[in-house]
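In the previous chapter we treated chains in isolation. Here, by contrast, the input contains two separate entities that must be folded as one system, with a combined length of 484 residues.
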Amino acid sequence: MAEPFHCDFSGRLFLGHLGNQMLNAADFHSTDRGFGMKYLMSIKRSWVLSRLAIEMVEMPAQYEHYSVETWVESAMKFFTSRNFCVSDASGKVYGYGRSIWAMIDTETRQPTDIYAIDNGAINNWIVADKPCPIEKSSRVKMSENADFVRSIDINYNDIDINGHVNSVKYIEHVLDLWDVAWYREHRIKRFEIAYVAETHQGDKLCFYREPTAENEYCVRLVKTEGETQNQVEVCRCKIVFC
Amino acid sequence: MAEPFHCDFSGRLFLGHLGNQMLNAADFHSTDRGFGMKYLMSIKRSWVLSRLAIEMVEMPAQYEHYSVETWVESAMKFFTSRNFCVSDASGKVYGYGRSIWAMIDTETRQPTDIYAIDNGAINNWIVADKPCPIEKSSRVKMSENADFVRSIDINYNDIDINGHVNSVKYIEHVLDLWDVAWYREHRIKRFEIAYVAETHQGDKLCFYREPTAENEYCVRLVKTEGETQNQVEVCRCKIVFC
């Protein structure tokens, strides 16, 4: 259910919460099939979200019930793609999601072979023919002319059990670059994010924004590391409003 | 269930999410009894959270199932007190909550008589003899010597359907005054907040903090209004760590 405190000023679910539910669905779905985070942790492996794209016709309204369906569309040695469909009990589709995941070795932090798990069992779960009628993520192209918008400190509530900023928090911070007055006139049609590096407590995040088409913006997030003051790109987003 | 992305670096539920679940429980419980927000809106009334105190022995861990039970402890003309108990299926109690609510006229924003609703029907729901073994909220006393810690801008994701900062966001922003290193050594034993005024998009929130005993701090939140630059106290908190 779209809980009241998970909804924005207009009474529609925050996109960050929907992203959170997609990640939950991915976690439950993979756990049920022997590919869950808990099991992977025990063999020093972990899923890492590489890309997420969400495209919505409509956002669930306050107190509406919605379901998130998920399936694995394809898998390769180092990446797997998992799709999402958000709908209600009557079959009305609110929107879709696409995600790309890598599997890493938690000690070396390097990509590892997904097919090495349980003799390539992921192949048993691939549903190649189920439609997900939104575009795949593409490389977010930005020039060097993006405007610096703001910087924020990374705080306790941004950090999850992995010790770094949780994937959904980036989405919330990026959407906070626009104000309530903007959202009164625009809704998010598509949100796309590509994760590059991790951000930790004590880092500062800088946001650079560039308009790339009518109602379309790209945003680059760069962290300044607490100790070294190194600057590193951590993710890029593309947001299409309508 | 304590969802993974609702848990902090230590794998324990964020206090903000627990506060959110308490407010949900209050909403469902009052709706089931004819005192819900939806009905009140239709007669130009609304519940306004005045105080919330949460005291925890332990926070639910990632993937643990927990329930939030709520009941009305007492009611007066302008205020009602509602308690919470957080437990698991085996009966283990994680902690308790206490809250005080006012009912306001949504046009005048003035307090209105709770007993005027449905001929004082709230009396039917009072459970006076159920124990809630944590202290009631008391006035948070602060001197004029509290230290300015930081200021933040109020953004899109802070604002709920009422058009102002949602009650839980204040809790998150206050707890963000301490860093991960602090939470590695301390857990929140009791958190108390008294709401005074509303904060809107475009306002700036300033945080003033004062140590009041060993492992006890009080925090005053003051908004600087976007247009007028007026300074107004919006809430006060007391946090006891252990």
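The mean pLDDT of chain A is 95. Residues 28 and 198 of chain A are 24 Å apart (CA to CA). Compare these points with the single-chain example from earlier in the chapter.
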